[in-house]
Specification:
Chain lengths: 333, 333
């Protein structure tokens, strides 16, 4: 599965910029793939890209329209259908990370069939999966692991990929969640696969590669999140990481969605991840900590990073705010 | 979901007794639920139950026909269809643990609809699941965990349930795999749920209960199996066990299906399970070891149990061969 580029980003009737954060993520990390945006009546989001009609996008060489807007139920509202059908009829593929599938909408499915175009419902894995084996394969892998869900693992992974590529290193971001897949154009939503296939999915997205090539694998959940730790462990075993980066959000007061569940100690969390990772890669090492300091001012952020670096004896940075340099330095060291 | 009892056990054209081991398991652990068997031409298995036609079974009060025979592809061969349709038309529900679904066979699905009967494809969860919360709930839980897959976790769990019930303790086996579900009449195949819902499924099958009630939860896989550890961890977190029983098969030379993957040390395996279990139940304790000694003679079996008990400082028994008494003693102690 590879979503063809370049993209037209569909913002629909996004009530505000936050609703279009998927589109913003794609633009931020893959601006070279984004030719334009398309907005419906009532849209209050603006990515600053050229507004295009479907015919204009097709004429400009766009290959896929990507739904870059989210809503509460993850539904595809009726008033989006005409535009999606028009895109298919104009020869574009359409990709979505919403819960409800494009392929389950009869008008959209029918238009795709008639036009011979592809629908990508990236939240719903369609690949035929096999169970993982844990067998060692060539190539190097870095996995971002977290103290909790939604602490910046995807951003950290993409920042590390960007820094490595800027240094001329061979590195590819490997997506494991819907936004990451839309950014990378490929990947598997590992939390949506059948439980038996978690590690197999992780093996599939980071296959054998050159000895000096790094897969930068997007982590999911946390070994310490009572709802999702199984996903995190299967991903850890399947990606058989050579390097771990621990991701953390320092203002989090409890595990996401669970007010009764405390955050783990960072050292304990890292130790548990290293211990579990050794099952499929005894040589795994922790190279640093990626801290999402977006809720702290600059002074507090720098204090926080210094304290974590001191506590763990590892480089700590906010890879979005201050760059991923210290993490890649540690990887090369 | 509750499969209605009593059962008629369908043996089909099982080439030998081993092919009917699902039926034998149901009969062994729930003989009170088994009124008869039905065999097709070419069947070489015999459970010693009365042979019944479908009309005889219906007249005897049978409520469900259970497919008790397995085959290589987990398929429902065409020459079984007539008997299954006849059972539905006679007012029986039909349950199967095969990979291929009864509900996907048009003749069978159609007959069920016409007769208003239920089809149970227990390998395929149909319950609407929610994500786990890890919140503490009343009642006590014991979980069997393993050094590997297929080391006797289901048998150990059922033997512990039987011993506890014989002592007048409140205990219910909670099934997490297809054979266990057919035995118990309910449960969820946790390795077949979507990965996000592993711990939620475990919470659903062992809900809040009386403070002195024990759920005996059937474990799956192993934290040390590179293919399936995610399932094991989610099950561990969701069942929030008060007590763990470690299950082991002493002649296993490598992890099941993976010649390159060594078995874990028993002490390391138990320690890792206890550590992970503390996330949702800090009071968890190990109460003993259940060893499947079926490949050892009596002397070797007793030596093996003595050595393991000595190494781990915990009672060790083969719960099928020598009874689950020592484990339940430890639970009550």
């Amino acid at each position: 599965m590879q979503i063809a580029t370049p993209y037209l980003l569909f913002l629909g009737d996004a009530p505000d910029d936050l609703a279009a954060k998927t589109a913003r993520g794609i633009l931020h990390w893959r601006s070279r793939n984004c030719l334009g945006q398309i907005r419906l009546a009532g849209c209050n989001a603006d990515l600053g890209l050229p507004d295009m009609t479907i015919p204009e996008a097709a004429a400009a060489g766009v290959k896929s329209m990507v739904i870059g807007v989210a809503n509460a139920g993850g539904v595809i509202p009726d008033h989006w259908t005409d535009t999606i059908v028009e895109a298919l009829e104009a020869g574009l593929d359409v990709a979505s990370g919403l819960h409800h599938r494009l392929a389950d909408n009869p008008a959209i499915a029918d238009a795709a069939r008639r036009a011979g175009r592809s629908l990508f419902d990236v939240r719903h894995p369609r690949t035929n999966l096999t169970t993982g084996t844990g067998a060692k394969r060539p190539g190097k892998r870095l996995l971002t692991v977290g103290t909790d869900c939604s602490v910046g693992k995807m951003f950290a992974s993409l920042a590390i990929e960007a820094e490595m590529q800027a240094r001329g290193l061979k590195a590819d971001f490997r997506a494991t969640g819907q936004t990451g897949i839309l950014i990378a154009g490929s990947g598997i939503s590992v939390d949506a696969v059948v439980a038996d296939f978690i590690s197999g999915a992780a093996e599939m997205i980071s296959p054998a590669n050159d000895p000096d090539h790094w897969d930068i694998v997007e982590g999911q959940g946390s070994l310490f999140h009572p709802s999702f730790a199984g996903v995190s462990l299967g991903l850890l075993h399947g990606s058989q990481p050579d390097a771990l980066v621990l991701c953390h959000e320092p203002t989090r007061r409890h595990m996401r969605g669970l007010p009764h569940a405390p955050l783990p100690d960072l050292g304990d969390c890292l130790a548990a991840n290293l211990q579990a990772a050794r099952l499929t890669n005894p040589a795994v090492r922790a190279i640093g900590v990626a801290v999402n300091t977006s809720r702290l001012d600059d002074t507090a952020a720098r204090d926080c990073l210094a304290r974590i670096a001191d506590d763990l004896g590892l480089p700590a940075t906010d890879p979005v705010r201050y760059g991923a340099g210290p993490l890649v330095d540690a990887l090369e060291g």
